[in-house]
Amino acid sequence: MSLRDKVNAGLKQAMKDKDSARLATLRLINAAIKDQDIARRTEDGETGVTDADILAILGKMIKQRHDSVRAYEEGGRLDLAERERDEIAVIEEFLPRQLDEHEIDTAIEEAIKKTGAGSIRDMGKVMGHLKQNYAGQMDFGAVGPKVKDRLSNA
């Protein structure tokens, strides 16, 4: 079952359960996916986004909500921060399991070997390999410095 199908199934279930908070979040996810569909169609005639694209959309939505939580907490709006955390929990249901630190280090080593990276100039190849194979399973903002450090010491 594709991610799009899982989101639609979750949307239907939330309607049946009359879970308005979950329903609102799932509608936001669906709208973001449809926006990407429309952008793709006008760009190059392709139809639809892939699961990897949907993972990227979900990752971006989670990052936005983490930023909102931080801003709401700094502003003393704990009720709004809690609502954002609830949305994060719903979005995370559709993401694959996140890798732990050891698994991330192993994935970096594997990517360096497979791409034949030998210096910092090869960082783009390594990051591309990681994004292709581990989309949604790691925070690439945190992984980038690790790859850079590893390639600097190579």
What is the overall pLDDT average?
Answer: 87
Structural class: mainly alpha
Overall spatial form: globular
How many E-type strands?
A: 0
The rounded Rg comes to 18 Å
Major sheet attributes: none
Helix content: over 70%
Question: CATH topology of the largest domain, what is it called?
Answer: Hypothetical Protein Yqey, Chain: A, domain1
Runs with pLDDT <50, length 5+?
none
Q: What is the number of helices?
A: 7
In angstroms, what separates the terminal alpha carbons? Answer: 41 Å
Give the CATH superfamily of the largest domain. Uncharacterised protein YqeY/AIM41, N-terminal domain
The arrangement of helices and strands along the chain is HHHHHHH
Reported CATH architecture of the largest domain: Orthogonal Bundle
Tell me the count of domains: 2
How much of the sequence lies in strands comes to under 5%
User: Given this structure, which CATH class of the largest domain is correct?
Assistant: Mainly Alpha
Compact description:
The protein has helices at 3-17, 20-44, 51-74, 78-92, 101-115, 123-134, 140-152.
Structural summary, described in words:
This protein is mainly α and 154 residues long. The protein has seven helices and no strands. The radius of gyration is 18 Å and the shape is globular. The chain starts with a helix and ends with a helix. The relative contact order is 0.10.
Walk me through the topology:
Elements: H1 3-17, H2 20-44, H3 51-74, H4 78-92, H5 101-115, H6 123-134, H7 140-152
